[in-house]
Amino acid sequence: MLRVAVVRGWYLPISETFIYSELVNVKSVSPIVCCKKIVNLEHFPFKPIYQYKDNDDLIDILRIQKISLIHARFGVTGADLLEVKKELGIPMLTSFHGFDLPTNAKSMRRYGDRLQHLFEQGDAFTVTSENMKEILIKYGCSPDKIFVHHSGINVSKFSYKKRTARENETITVLTVGRLVEKKGMEYLIEAVHRVHQHYPGIRLRIAGDGQLKRTLEKQVERLKLDGIVKFLGEVSHQAVVEEMKKAHLFALASTTDNVGNQEGIPNVLKEAMACGMPVLSTKHAGIPELVEDGKSGFLVPERDPVALAERLLHLVQHAEDWEKFGTHGRKTVEQFFNIDRQIENLERIYSLLLSK
User: Fold this and answer.
1) Helix 305-317 vs helix 185-196: angle between axes, to the nearest 10 degrees?
2) Which of 172, 236, 242 is nearest to 209 (CA)?
3) 29 vs 3: CA distance, rounded Å
C-alpha cells in the first residue's frame, strides 16, 4: 500500500479533530504523521509519528519510509516544504483551512514571495469551501488544481435529539471556540445581554480558552451577566459532545479579524446541527454553504450584536420551530458533511495525484 506523509507543525491542536478523523479513517493509503512538536497525544492517539527538526531531517525520514505523497496541512506548511518536494521528486497536496489564506496579513508575512511558488509548484490544493476556492484563485492559484473538500464529521457519534422547551423554561445557548477575535465572542455576549432583558431565563455556556478570556470576563462583569454567562475553559471533544446533548440552541458569531483571518466552515457548527440543535451564526466565509438561513437556523451580518440579539430572541420565543430547524440541519450534515463521504473524496484526490 502506498504511503502518504501528513505533515503538520504540531500534532495536534485540540481543535483539529478533522485532521485526526481523516488520519484514522483513510483506507486506500497508509498514512504517517511528521511534525516538529507532539501535543495532545492522549486525545489523538496515532502511530507512526515522526518528529523532525528541519527539512533535511524530514527528507531523510520520508526517504526511509518510502513516502509517495506529501500532504501538507495548512498553506504555510506547504510553502515550507517546497524544497522537500523538489528534493524527493514526489507530488504534494496542500490543504488550506482558514488562517492560512492570503487574505490574512500575518500569513502573508510568513509566505513572503513563496505563495506564488507554492501555487506554481504544488500539485493540488484542497479548500473547505467555495468561498475559499475563490480567494485562492484571486491570488493566483489555477482553478484546475483546487478541490473543495469539506471537513467531514462522524455523524454516528452525534445523536439527534429533538429540542423542546416549556414556557418560561431556562434556555441554554452553547458556543464553542477559541477565545480569539475571529470567533466573535464579544458580539454574542452583547447579544445575550440584550436578550436577557426580555427573557431572563437565557443562559450562555462558552467552551474554549484563549487570549481574550480576561477581556470577555470583564465584559460579562460590566454587563452584570454573572450567573448568566458561564466560561467552561478548554474542554475535550467528548465534553463538547456532552454539552451539546444538554443545550437547546447553538451560536457561533464568527467574524473576519483585523488582520483578515477567516474561518473555513467550522466543524463545531456541523456537530451542533448533527445533534439537532437550531443554530445561529454569521454570513461569514463558508458558513452560508452549511447553514441555510431560515431552514437550519439563522444567519446575520458579522459584528452585529443587535441582529444577533433579534434572531436569538426569536429562537428563544419560538420553540415550536426548533424541530424543523434541527431535522433540516441533521439531514444537511448527513448528506454533505459526513466523514465517510469526505474520506472517499480525499482518497480520490490521493489516487489522482499518485497516478501521476
Assistant:
1) 50
2) 236
3) 6
> Cell match 455576549: residue?
189
Residue 30: burial class (beta carbons within 10 Å; 0-12, 13-18, 19+)? middle
Mean pLDDT of the chain: 96
Cβ 34 vs Cβ 6: under 8 Å: yes
Q: What is the pLDDT of residues 42-73, one digit of tens each?
A: 999 999 999 999 999 999 999 999 999 999 99
> What DSSP string runs through 103-166?
TSHHHHHHHTTHHHHHHHH-SEEEESSHHHHHHHHHTT--GGGEEE-PPPB-GGGS--------
Rounded to an integer, what distance in angstroms lies between the CA atom of residue 67 and that of residue 61?
A: 9
Domains in the chain, CATH or no CATH each: 3-152+338-355 (3.40.50.2000), 155-336 (3.40.50.2000)
d(CA 316, CA 169): 10
Cβ(148)–Cβ(135) below 8 Å: no
Q: Is 262 strand, coil or helix?
A: coil
Q: C-alpha cell of 355? A: 497516478
What is the Cα–Cα distance from 135 to 138, expressed in whole angstroms? 5
Whether a cis peptide bond, with omega within 30° of 0, leads into 48 is yes
CA geometry: angle at 20 spanning 286 and 283, to 5°? 10
List pLDDT tens digits, range 327-337.
Answer: 999 999 999 99
268-293 pLDDT, tens digit each: 999 999 999 999 999 999 999 999 99
* Residue 85 phi, psi (nearest 5): -60, -45
Which run of H or of E encompasses 186?
helix 185-196
User: Could you say which residues of the chain have pLDDT below 70?
Assistant: none
Are 177 and 268 spatial neighbours (Cβ–Cβ below 8 Å)? yes
